[in-house]
Amino acid sequence: MTADPNCIFCKIAAGTIPCTKLYEDGETLAFMDINPANDGHCLVIPKAHFPTVFALAPEAFAAAGRTVIKVASAVQAALTPDGINLLQANGPGAAQSVLHFHIHVLPRRQNDGLSINWTPKPGDRGRIAEIAERIRKHL
Length: 139
Ligand code: 5GP
Ligand code: ZN
Fold this sequence. Notes:
The chain is an alpha+beta fold. It has helices spanning 8-14, 58-79, 125-136, and strands at residues 21-24, 28-32, 42-46, 83-87, 103-108. The protein is 29% helix and 18% strand.
């Protein structure tokens, strides 16, 4: 399994740095975030080191996804929040601070004051289509 000796989440996965563990299986680990944005904020990681989604093995994403479903369901049952955001950052523009792929499971309450939402407003149809065309060329 790939690991980066300087990566904090690799150290947590290896057990050399402690965490408040929720769940683990062969490929993934779920643990409480040390700086929770709300009660119940936790993280799911593949144990293998992938910095971002761009380097991620599809099997690792699938395994992390299975654990996210399990953990998000447990958070919902235990804390009955009004909702849960799954969040995942890639790169500095997305405010990624730990370069080991991870998914935030973030319980939300109505009016909890977290500012990760945006107000939907209609886009320009022509611009949407033009940007979709640019993306499709790389698929
Ligand atoms: P990012 O900003 O990369 O999307 O999220 C990284 C998350 O990892 C942050 O929410 C941060 O609080 C959490 N974090 C960073 N270092 C540690 C640590 O040593 N232990 C735990 N449990 N969480 C950490
Ligand atoms: Zn790592």
